[in-house]
Write a structure and sequence with these properties.
Length: 406
């Protein structure tokens, strides 16, 4: 028998849902006063990152044994109010390692929102467990806590709330359900560096939290991630599993199946430099979001991201929803913004609409997440975004709206 591809992409999809999917990415044309593309997000890097990376190169410690890794773990954990940090290769591997450490496995169920990036569901699947999907509430896009309990079964082991686009989920209610049913709570805080919930820092509230340091995150190491926890047992086990589960008795001696999820010293060096401006990067996101809101709040047909009393939303991305009353669709707005060199991104395509997952959830209904998918986009949101760029973006949107209404 001739060899063939072992894994082929899924082709089937429920055609009656195809109207919810975004159009292809529009072509960006830098027709603006800045004569450049305004990216949806770009990292803020300076001489500090260069200096710390150079220190690694000059020392020869560039792999996962350098001293900057432990320093980065301690300082990041302290910044998010947790006792322990475990640096890993990505936010996805942070999720997988957290789930695996907690013993999630074959036959288990893990509750997640359907409105999330694919990595959340994939990490559950990596463990052999089943992602159980819950719809979002429309104001923040976070998991609808009122719909979680009906999805809990005897196989449920954990809940993964996502702090969507930097706005914390309703952790008090989630923790209460977890206590009632003896479940783990794993915060997916990939987008929520610096966020707070009722005076508590995101990353220190659940049993475990996971962060991403991908290049578009508020704090970046290029690629990379972090697990934070206040539980010493979880910390010790996850730390060991991250590094092939080497035994302390002797080298090349393994009692558990582990992983190579180790962050490099070079990445940690960048992370340490980023931590030096952590507060500045977070506050700039918030400042930019408030400027956007002041400029866009009176435009009919746009739903802007919320600020909630007692909650610190860090606005990882400034996400808006384009309603029918705006006059044109979300995709048409993206196309017109692209002609002015303004890059945007659509909101997540929910898990239940993904080709690889939809057959598992075909009989379930997630209307809020589908509306978010159809209507949502986020505007350029970098911490390094300039005020004049925000004014230009807002004026462009206002001009498009005026042209539609004339």
């Amino acid at each position: 028998m001739a060899k063939s591809l072992i894994r082929k992409p899924e082709k089937d999809f429920p055609r009656h849902k195809s109207h919810l999917l975004p159009s292809p990415e529009p072509v960006l044309i830098p027709d603006n006063p800045f004569h450049k593309i305004i990216p949806v997000c770009a990292p803020v890097l300076d001489e500090s990152e260069k200096r710390k990376v150079l220190e690694c190169i000059e020392s020869g410690w560039i792999s996962s044994l350098g001293e900057k890794i432990g320093e980065f773990e301690r300082k990041f954990a302290e910044k998010v109010g947790a006792k322990y940090g475990i640096a890993v290769t990505s936010g996805t591997t942070a999720l997988h390692l957290a789930l695996y450490t907690l013993g999630i496995g074959e036959g288990d169920e893990v509750i997640i929102p359907t409105f999330t990036m694919i990595a959340t569901a994939n990490a559950v699947r990596y463990c052999g467990a089943k992602p159980v999907l819950v719809d979002s509430e429309p104001r923040t896009g976070n998991i609808d806590v009122e719909k979680i309990e009906e999805k809990i079964t005897s196989q449920t082991r954990a809940i993964i709330p996502i702090h969507t686009y930097g706005h914390p989920a309703e952790m008090d209610k989630i923790l209460a359900l977890a206590k009632k049913y003896d479940l783990w709570v794993i915060e997916d805080a990939a987008e929520a560096h610096g966020a707070e919930y009722k005076g508590r820092k995101i990353g220190s509230i659940g049993d475990v939290a996971t962060f991403s340091f991908y290049a578009n995150k508020i704090i970046t190491t290029g690629e990379g991630g972090m697990i934070t926890t206040n539980n010493s047992e979880i910390y010790e086990i996850a730390r060991n599993l991250r590094d092939h589960a080497f035994s302390q008795e002797r080298h090349f001696w393994h009692k558990l199946v582990g992983f190579n999820y180790r962050m490099t010293n070079l990445q940690a060096a960048i992370g340490l430099a980023q931590l030096e401006k952590f507060d500045e990067l977070v506050e700039k996101r918030i400042e930019n979001a408030r400027l956007y809101t002041s400029l866009l709040k009176d435009i009919e047909g746009l739903v802007l991201p919320p600020e909630t009393e007692g909650i610190k939303n860090v606005f990882w991305m400034y996400g808006i929803r384009v309603k029918d009353s705006f006059g044109i669709s979300r995709d048409e707005l993206r196309e017109r913004l692209a002609r002015k060199g303004i890059e945007t991104r659509t909101f997540f395509i929910p898990i239940h609409l993904q080709p690889i997952y939809w057959k598992d959830y075909v009989n379930e209904d997630f209307p809020v997440s589908e509306a978010l998918c159809k209507e949502g986009l986020y505007l350029p949101s970098s911490s390094g975004l300039k005020k004049e760029e925000i004014y230009f973006i807002a004026e462009t949107i206002r001009g498009i709206k005026k042209g539609v209404g004339s």
